[in-house]
Amino acid sequence: MKVGIVGLPNVGKSTLFNCLSSAKAQSANFPFCTIEPNLGVVIVPDERLSVLESLVKPERVQPANVEIVDIAGLVRGASKGEGLGNQFLGNIRECQAIIHVLRCFDNDNIVHVEGKINPVSDKETIDIELQLKDLETVEKRLEKVNRAAKVGDKLAVKEQGLLNQIKELLLSGKSVRELETDTDDAELLKSFQLLTAKPILYVCNVDEASAKNGNAYVEDVKKAIAGEKAQLITLAVATEADIAELESYEERQMFLEDIGLDEPGVSKLIRAAYTLLDLQTYFTAGVKEVRAWTIPVGATAPQAAGVIHTDFEKGFIRAEVISYQDFVHYGSEAKVKEAGKMRVEGKEYIVKDGDVMHFRFNV
Q: What is the pLDDT of residue 83?
């Protein structure tokens, strides 16, 4: 599951990527500094993992992670191949969610590709290019579906109706994620692989003084995305880069306190990206390893077991489940069992975020 970082050139995408991952994308004051998309595997900060480690004292700890892709900057006309448009749009298509970085700071030393600072206009530039590409995709698909619908194909008729709805929405300047759909249509919509249907998180890149409370640019963006089914986070990317370079935890905490923050903004961003992908975490906790496992929200116990090994899912018998709160309250698996708080769940059980699980299986 990948999240793609997008935005106009020179808005702070590669600097943010460098903060997020150990991979070091080139970062410089000129457009298209990132030509090939950079891929980083980013650890998801989770205090619960540290608490379980302190209780179990395992040999090793393995956190959850999410893949972040730094994609080359887009310019006006990308949907027609301008700049690195085709490559940019192709890279977005491969991602399951989007982090859209918007420049919300003034700095005469950093050039803006459009010649002015206007994050709402920047957002609209990328929106339009993605919408135009989706419109092209929808129209091509309609050509095929219309022929099948004419001869009474029921599935084609259903698809035709949804595609026409989407086309009307795109022509009105809106993104597909704003479309209200029922469960059946939602599944059909996924099959279209439309760019503007992807969940999105707007990152307002501000100066250090605006890191805590934002600024007028951020307020403008909030108004512009109202009703769009999108999330927003404010981040001083250059400041985050400075924090990331500090060697000790104490130094980082002192820096954060000086600017009025309780934790690095990138930690909040990574958790937001994880949520954006509709993911959650369950844990396994033993003396060999305490580990966070990533599953989609709504996964069943056998599906969760299958993340460890396909044999666990195939031969699933039952899951022994402890809520995270109970594990912490009683302090160990043995004490949880003594208190009668360990539950035995079957194939229909929907895993909850934070469950501590042990699987019984037979292959």
A: 47
